[in-house]
Structure prediction request, 179 residues.
Amino acid sequence: AEGDASFHAALGQFLANDQDRLRMTALRMHQDGDAEGAIALLARIAVEDPGDLAVATDLAKLLTLAGRPHEALALLSALPAAARAQAGIAGLLAHLELIEAANQEPAADTPDARLTQAARALFEDQPEPALIALLELARDEPAFRNDIGRRAMLALFGMLGSDHELTRRYRARLAELTV
Prediction:
């Protein structure tokens, strides 16, 4: 804890403004076990500066960790399209959409059913069946939820790492769809 405090103090010298200092305070609060206080502080900062994407991302992450992924998804979904397309936000958004999909009971033989199938496979630590379902979505339903099949595959590749055999194999298959 003492090392963390000195690190945060040193880091504080380089922070550009009060918003950044408040954001770091919120993250320390979370680290110290005050998740709700951290969420409340980040929400206040977000209201004061809605264009600060780091705050929105941190808030979404803390909401998710607090068991409130639906709120995190709503927050990120409300961002402008250009912000949602940024790598860190796009990946988090895809993860949140998968969390939401895993809890759905969609009608059979629908894109929602395929997404739910993929999400549940991921939660059961079965990445290959998830990738198969997501690849089918990317191939057959690219307009569904703003190409969630492709976006979720990219997020999963990030989790698996670029050297993972499934990443190499399914990244190549995904690339074939765009040729």
Notes: The chain has eleven helices and no strands. The CA atoms of residues 47 and 153 lie 32 Å apart. The longest helix spans residues 87-102. The mean pLDDT is 90.
